[in-house]
Specification:
Chain lengths: 220, 250
């Protein structure tokens, strides 16, 4: 009887140890699917027709990082990338359509003035450990590339954003800080796109070309 | 004959009991008097403007500082407090903060939000922004800056468990400071209507005699209540009042 009781106690203890280890391990890894609100920017659209090329690496972007003695982070940003960029560029231009290849086919190049191809270049974050640190911080950098329809690169513009969120649940705060950083990127792109020198020149060329073709049409 | 003897305490025992009771009472009084929240509020209203029928107010957090930011919970607390009833008075017409920022995206993002009424005037000149602000019905923007921080703590509590039982002994304390500035902008006049400075300091104590006894001061909650009350008066009163402090912004 005594032996049975000891065996039963040992089994219970083993179960407890396994359960505890499971809880500990779960606490050591974070998997976050970035979700947020991506409002359309309140700006005047530019009078150009753009194609948007989102390649697979951009759409499936995952940031994986192991921090020694802390945790392992897997942050899925791909879907958020697509939603944010689509809403952003829809408002920025007179027309926007998805494209899947560069250079464009001849039929497409007549109705599209340029192609945008964003890339998520860098993602960094900091989750506080000590009591003095209150905020989760995220730094994110995109490269916005503008191409002519024939595939010629017009400009490559690095745009970065910073986001912070008070620590209130590690995963939720990291999601929140990422969304803030991405929205900052959207804010910079939507307000300063036309101020970039290469893009300014490109827009002027498009405007001149449009004016010339309108004049030619009216003369005919 | 039975003799009944009244059991009498010896003078020494009586004296010891009295001293122990006095000591316990002094310690308790000392602990209790150390708890609680001290408050300082300085409102300053520069104009006679007030929230009229159909007009709305929105509460936003200043987010351009790297080191601090008014907590989301605090913003919600003040917003909900203004929108809720107060004794016989009804709630004010409060616009949801997130919806306001989203409807005016990207102009109220942390790096883009206007920091002065001059920048606000420039913002409203941008295409479609003034129309969007007008359609929101917002007349006043309340910018909340500040935070609640723990600036001192000490003591300690030790707990132990054994075969005969478990218990804790010790004394832990901490002090929190909730300091907030509210700056009210009048979107119609494009000017600052006034400011309210609130500083709430709270000391919490947790003595442990077998079990911990938390005596928690909540300065942030008190700051929310105090600031909400002051903002309500500010937004509904047509008179100018107060001579505000010099607010130092970092």
């Amino acid at each position: 009887m005594e032996i049975m009781r000891v065996k039963s106690l040992w089994t219970e203890l083993r179960h407890l140890v396994v359960a505890g280890a499971g809880v500990l391990l779960a606490g050591c890894s974070s998997s976050i699917w970035v979700e947020g609100d991506w409002p359309q920017p309140l700006i005047e659209p530019l009078p150009v027709r753009m194609g948007l090329l989102l390649d697979d690496e951009f759409l499936d972007y995952v940031h994986y990082e192991e921090i020694p003695r802390q945790a392992t982070y897997t942050i899925q940003i791909g879907e958020a990338n697509e939603l944010m960029m689509d809403r952003l560029f829809q408002s920025m231009f007179a027309a926007l359509e998805p494209v899947y290849v560069l250079p464009l086919a001849q039929a497409d190049s007549y109705r599209i003035d340029g192609v945008l191809r964003p890339e998520l270049d860098r993602y960094e974050f900091d989750v506080p450990l000590g009591e003095r640190d209150e905020f989760v911080e995220v730094w994110i950098q995109y490269l916005v590339r503008l191409y002519e329809p024939d595939g010629q690169l017009v400009t490559e513009w690095p745009v970065s954003g910073y986001g912070k969120a008070e620590l209130n649940g590690r995963d939720a705060s990291l999601n929140r800080a990422t969304v803030v950083a991405m929205r900052e990127v959207g804010a910079v792109i939507s307000t300063r796109f036309s101020e970039q020198p290469d893009i300014q020149y490109w827009l002027q060329e498009r405007a001149n070309a449009t004016a010339l073709s309108s004049e030619a049409l009216s003369n005919n | 004959m039975r003799l009944h003897y009244l059991q009498k305490h010896s003078p020494i025992t009586k004296s010891m009991n009295l001293k122990a009771a006095t000591l316990l009472a002094s310690i308790s009084l000392g602990i209790l008097s150390g708890c609680g929240v001290t408050a300082r509020i300085e409102p300053y209203k520069e104009t006679e403007a007030f929230l009229a029928e159909g007009e709305r107010v929105v509460v936003l957090a200043r987010k351009h500082h790297a080191s601090h930011e008014a907590e989301e919970d605090f913003i919600d607390c003040v917003s909900d407090g203004l929108a809720g009833p107060y004794y016989d008075a009804g709630g004010l017409n409060v616009h949801n903060s997130t919806e306001f920022e989203d409807s005016l995206y990207p102009w109220f993002e942390p790096s883009m939000a206007p920091l002065t009424t001059d920048e606000l005037a420039e913002l409203l000149e941008k295409p479609n922004v003034l129309d969007r602000v007008r359609s929101s019905g917002v007349r006043f923007v309340v910018w909340l800056d500040g935070s609640t921080d723990r600036f001192a703590s000490g003591g300690g509590i030790t707990c132990a468990a054994g075969v005969g039982g478990a218990g804790c002994v010790g004394l832990a304390w901490w002090e929190d400071d909730a300091r907030y500035d509210a700056t009210v902008w009048d979107l119609r006049e494009l000017s600052t209507a006034g400011t309210i400075f609130a500083d709430y300091n709270g000391k919490s104590v947790m003595p442990a005699l077998i079990i911990p006894i938390p005596l928690i001061a909540r300065p942030q909650a008190a700051a929310c209540r105090g600031l909400t009350l002051q903002l309500r008066q500010f937004l509904t009163s047509p008179s100018i009042y107060g001579a505000g402090p010099e607010l130092i912004s970092n």
